[in-house]
Design brief:
Layout (H helix, E strand, L loop, with lengths): L9 E4 L5 H11 L3 E6 L13 E2 L2 E2 H6 L3 E5 L5 H11 L4 E4 L5 H4 L4 H7 L4 E6 L14 H7 L21 H24 L3 E6 H7 L4 H8 L16 E6 L2 E6 L3 H10 L14 H6 L1 H12 L4 H10 L4 E3 L3 H4 L3 H5 L3 E5 L7 E5 L23 H8 L4 H9 L4
Parallel strand pairs: 1-2, 1-6, 2-5, 6-7, 7-8
Antiparallel strand pairs: 3-4, 9-10, 10-11, 12-13
């Protein structure tokens, strides 16, 4: 599926590993021309992250489909000259170096803005371009910990802070990056004025804390891990069926009463401990075993059928293998086969594209590029070089 919404946007992608590549992946999936700029001979660090399939990193290919690869040594004087030539023909630049790196190379926003005043320059870093910690390195787990989300994630019994299983420290920064870029692009279309976007992974973690901040301020108590239940809606949790876990989300009084009748626990409707949502939340430790005692008597599948028949929101807790066979997920084309490289017949399965528009689309799901595979074509198209000049640059190690 090729989404052509962003087909006229050209992106220089200087990012590596996850936060930046996830941001530019969304732009590429939406139709933007994304040119991944990598160091000659080395490339993105994640090219060396396992698992490997047919000699290619599955980690890398899952984040870099629908992109092109240009190798260019930005530390060399000739490489900088070429890069400046490229900048004039692109709309967006995304980088996730440590703050000050691009400026040290003479390629900071202030310099590039002179070449392309409409440029949307996006800098993604651990802590942003200001503040006392701006130069500190950061990975996902660092910002998950410092950003508070680990302190509210985990099991209630041991209260051990727990990292969210997916790298949301990186992923949320990537998604906020897309929102920022598209907002700035619309502004540029209206005004002709570019922008520098300063995006902090830590800021993005703070932004997704939902109501944890206001709960802490109002109550004066730090929220702690409470397992899989909701801090203010009950029952909204995992329950234990005879063969596994099931999610039940009876999030209002009507659904609660339906659940009570369905489970033959209608005596709980008038129980003073559970009369309203607030009381059910406060008395969850007394309510949970009453519900589990009933749910233990049937399989998860049986409970799903019963709950759905009454319109009570519910679901299985699936592992990844089950997810890969989920009929709803497959019907929405969210699991795709992709070649590990253009030259290989080997394929693997990756997450699909979640965007769906009524505009007709054509199929585009190209594999992640080999290191530097598009260098000659990009330099000829955007820097005005001929093939002989490109060969000379390659021999010198500049591309």
């Amino acid at each position: 599926m090729e989404l052509s919404m962003l087909k006229d946007i050209k992106v220089l992608d200087l990012t590596r590993v996850l936060a930046g590549p996830f941001c530019t992946l969304q732009l590429a999936d939406l139709g933007a021309e994304v040119v991944k700029v990598e160091m000659p001979q080395k490339g993105d660090d994640s090219r060396f992250y396992g698992p490997f399939i047919d000699g290619h990193s599955a980690y890398f290919l899952s984040l870099n489909r629908n992109k092109k690869s240009l190798t260019l040594d930005l530390k060399s004087s000739r490489g900088k000259e070429i890069f400046k030539e490229l900048v004039s023909g692109f709309d967006v630049l995304v980088e996730n170096f440590r703050p000050g790196t691009m400026e040290k190379w003479g390629l900071g926003y202030e310099e590039l803005e002179k070449i392309n005043p409409r440029l949307i320059y996006t800098a993604i870093s651990g802590f942003g371009n200001s503040g006392p910690d701006r130069l500190k390195p950061a990975y996902d787990i660092v910002v998950q910990g410092r950003g508070g989300i680990m302190s509210i994630t985990g099991q209630e019994e041991d209260k051990v802070p727990t990292r969210v299983g997916a790298s949301i420290g990186d992923i949320t920064a990537g998604l906020f990056g897309v929102i920022s870029i598209l907002s700035a692009y619309i502004h540029a279309l209206k005004t002709g004025q570019g922008n520098k976007i300063d995006l902090s992974m830590l800021d993005c973690q703070v932004a997704i804390l939902e109501n944890a901040i206001c709960r802490s301020v109002i109550s004066g108590i730090n929220p702690e891990p409470i397992g899989n239940r909701h801090p203010s809606i009950t029952p909204f949790a995992t329950l234990t069926a005879s063969d596994g876990y099931i999610i039940v989300a009876a999030a209002n009084q009507k659904l609660w009463e339906k659940l009570c009748y369905l489970t033959a626990l209608d005596n709980l409707i008038g129980d003073p401990r559970f009369q309203d949502n607030d009381l059910r939340t406060k008395n969850w430790k007394e309510l949970e075993p009453l519900l589990n005692r009933v749910f233990n008597k049937k399989t998860a599948g049986e409970w799903i059928s019963l709950l759905e028949s009454e319109g009570i929101p519910c679901g299985l807790v699936q592992n990844i293998s089950q997810l890969l066979e989920d009929e709803q997920v497959l019907d929405r084309n969210m699991i795709r086969d992709i070649k590990v490289s253009a030259a290989s017949d080997q394929t693997t399965r990756v997450a699909g594209i979640p965007y769906n528009f009524s505009t007709p689309t054509a199929d585009r799901f190209t594999p992640a590029p080999e290191l530097g595979q598009d260098s000659f074509a990009i330099l000829q198209d955007y820097a005005g070089l001929n093939r002989e000049e490109c060969r000379h640059l390659r021999d010198e190690g500049i591309i």
